[in-house]
Amino acid sequence: MAASVEGWTMGELLELFSPSRVAVVGATDREGSVGRAIMENLRGFEGEVVPVNPNRESVFGDPCVPEVGAAGDVDLAVIAVPVEAAVEAVRAAGEAGVEAVVVITAGFGEAGSEGAAREAELERAAAEYDLDLVGPNCVGVLGTPAGLNATFAPTGAEPGSISFLSQSGAVITAVLDWAADEGVGFRHVVSLGNKAVLDEADFVDAWGGDPGTDVVLGYLESVADGRRFVERTREVSRETPVVVLKSGRTEAGARAAASHTGAIAGSDRAYEAGLRAAGAIRAHSLQGLFDAGRALAGQPVPEGDGVAVVTNAGGAGVLATDAVGDTRLSLASLAPETVGTLGEVLPPGANRHNPVDIIGDADAARFREALAAVLADEGVAAAAVLAAPSAPLSFEALAEAVVDCQADAGIPIVAALMGGERVRAAEPALRAAGIPTYFDPGRAVGSLDALARYRERRERESESPGTFRVDRERADAVLDTARERGRTQLGVEAMALLEAYGIPTPAGAVADDPGEAVAVAEDIGDEVVLKIVSPDISHKSDIGGVRVGVPVGEVADAFEDLVARAYSYQPDARVLGVQVQELIDTDAGVETIVGATRDPTFGPVVLFGLGGIFVETLEDVAVRLAPVAGSEARAMTREIETAPLLQGARGREPVDTDAVVETIQRLSRLVTDYPGILELDVNPLVATPDGATAVDLRLTVEP
Amino acid sequence: MTTTTVLVTATGEGSGKTAVALALATLARERGRSVGYMKPKGTRLESVVGKTVDADPAFAAELLDIDADVATLEPVVYSPTFVEEAVRGREDPGALREQVRESFETLSADRDLMVVEGGTTWATGRTVDLADPAVATLLDADPLVVAGYRRPDDLDDVLVAADRFDGPRVLFNGIAEGTADRVAADVAPFLEGEGIPVPGVLPRVPELAGVTVADLAEELGAEVLTDGATDATVERFLVGAMGAETSLRYFRRASDAAVITGGDRAEIHSVALEAPGVRCLLLTGGVEPSDAVLGTAETRGIPVLLVRGDTMTTIDRAEGVVRSGRTRDARTVERMRELLADHADVDALLGG
Fold first, then answer.
1. What's the pTM value of the predicted model, to 2 decimals?
2. From A109, which residue of chain B is nearest by alpha-carbon distance?
3. φ, ψ dihedrals at A335, nearest 5°
4. CB contact at 8 A, A103 and A119
5. How many CB pairs under 8 A join A and B?
6. What CA–CA distance (Å, rounded) separates B119 from B132?
7. Contact B293/A115, CB-based, under 8 Å?
8. Cβ(A556)–Cβ(A627) below 8 Å
9. Which alpha helices (H) appear in A299-420, and where do they start and end?
């Protein structure tokens, strides 16, 4: 829906958050109105605020102008007028030369047919005047450096280095109120609303060029343009971490999201692949989003995966250790020298190994010594300090020790101060140093995991997808024929498509009658495979439409049998013939599936898994955006749970993974080259120690 | 002046008989011939201001500019009650035949060509000795059997129908892509060998195989929730009862489809709006979708219909609407005229 807006430089969009003169169209002092809330929130703004309202003389003592054209040199117009007047107000702003507009007003695409028409009008107005337009149906924008709070949220924001975008306005008002309690500060906040013009990709892109933004956080229910988002975010995430909470993961969640926004919530697997390609870190809850955000904003990125745990409570140490086990992190194994040093500073009964338990009578000084010792260990890349209340322990002193140690070592540290009122006094010092603190040791470890995931993303090489010699003409011919005949469902009769892309297939052809089938079979060999060819029968083997190992002498009878089965299964099926195919020895290999789908959000996506129940029942698949690079295709073959079967489980010979990897890449190239392919399944792709062969094919093409 | 009479009959319901009859008449008019139309037995009955009539003759009269009353265009109203009365001996077949002949004489006066449309199938009317073969003999008409062909043994029905007539010809209609080649290459020559000319093999086209969204809405008594165009053709129905991802795969395989699902299944609505072959959403249970979904549908130009009934009942009714294959607008006839011009020997069909 969102028109992509090209042609500005990043700096221009950032100016949205630091205007010098803001016009509030629909400003009022009427109790309980949005126009009033915005005016109140703009009181702290460093620049000038001009209320625009033809029906008022002044608002809060500021003289009103009747229209935005009379407001002087305005660089941001906030539109909070009734919906019937909103598009006209945007036009007036454009006419007056305003370049950035925030449309708070609701009643557009989210409000049925009439609203959709109005949103189209709004988009046209924005295009006509080349406006940077936020919303409509949003809470507004906020930029702490300029003291700008052009929202109607009841709570503002403290300064910080987190920039936050959200598709839900309520999530913004809630987060701002919560953040005020938690001492979380923000740099920029934008409520995307319906994303009629500007969307998530625009803001990620802009914040990537903003030195004051250390982390980008996003709450999304859908992505407007998946490929654009991936491209922009991939660039930004090299230098600035981007953490995304995408809701609508489950079936019921997807329903709620689609109902809320009208947009497809999308395949969660495609989102997983898209966010991975974008280099974004995915959070699964609001808490996880902000845990990650705080850690990334406040702490350096660790250089390894080794975590040291220092605690005065054995139970907390075990909880943290379990949490480490759930992540990509590992519990650092401490060097003998470190263990030695710990022996010197810790009392008998303490655990000098990781998790380091400095026991219940520890004071802050003992924490300091133990922490300094582990931080000096080369194998320690990050540390978690866990403290339960005890008589000798002053949490303020502990906080000071943790801050000092972190500053000395330059290694990320997170804390779990496990108490209530007693620990609060220590929190300001830790927060001031950017050290996240939690009650639960698991959350502390989780925020370290976010740091490690970001390191992994930065280290990931960006490898270009491989190029292959392919026969475009031959592939064109297959797809053109289908189009001419109005066929959208293709099967084995389209195997030439795979051959054109260098994917090995068994010898074979479609036979029209029994005699032709016998002739094809005689060319192939002693035994063949026969498959019914019908665009109306999607699960051939379910209806007995596939016969394996048919001797040449029985081919004519088998032909008749398959055609009869097809008609008895579906009396009006279109039967195009019978495919006669070379028999591939599947016993020597592993049946895998390589599939592709054109995701409505992210475009072509490829999928790899093992055949049979593994894909259909266990959903054990690896998914990537197409085209995939060699390293990513290889990662796909490794990340499925059933990967050991490819490596030769139970004494079998490993399959030729290189051939599988190449097939995945070639197929991903095919679906990228031909956007008309909506779905494609090679099932099975039989992988043997000597190669990989595409035995069956099914695809859906655009009409 | 000699009048050529063509009786358009059919092997089964929904074969496109009405469209073929009217398109032939149109083609003849274009060739400067004076054309009359008649449907001796009214079978597609509906009640218009208290009187049960077939809707086809009135439409034909309007389309072909024929000034005749419905009782002449359709002398026998072949309703269930009529058949029961005939079985009870309360109708006189001889008188009925006479009535048909008289109407025909009135209508065919000064005409070069008379197009006579048969019953639902060629057998319709047998209870009063007015099955299509008898009508052909009575009116000295050249029989044209409109037949479908989906699978090889359908040919038996075609042959049995042809056997009933004197000098029959067979026009294949609605032949699926993939099957059309076989019909042309094997079936037509076979029939010709049996002495049955095949003047054309017409391919299946969605506009004729389906109904418009507007018609569907009207027939189902559905409320149209969107403002956009409703002239797209729907040929088949898909039920959105699976997960969103699976549904998308399934919806993408279909063309000219309506997706039937509950009004509260927003995730299904949103994926249906992404599938290129989906022409409308048909929501059941009287549950309105969210405004945001309606907004998206409007933007995509996909109409959203709402019915009170449950999904199962709605599927049955909707499929019935498509099956009956209504020819109620000039557009359908025009499309058939194009098909005949492109895929049939029109001169042979018009005889004379």
1. 0.86
2. B295
3. -70, 155
4. no
5. 129
6. 7
7. no
8. no
9. 314-325, 336-345, 364-375, 395-409
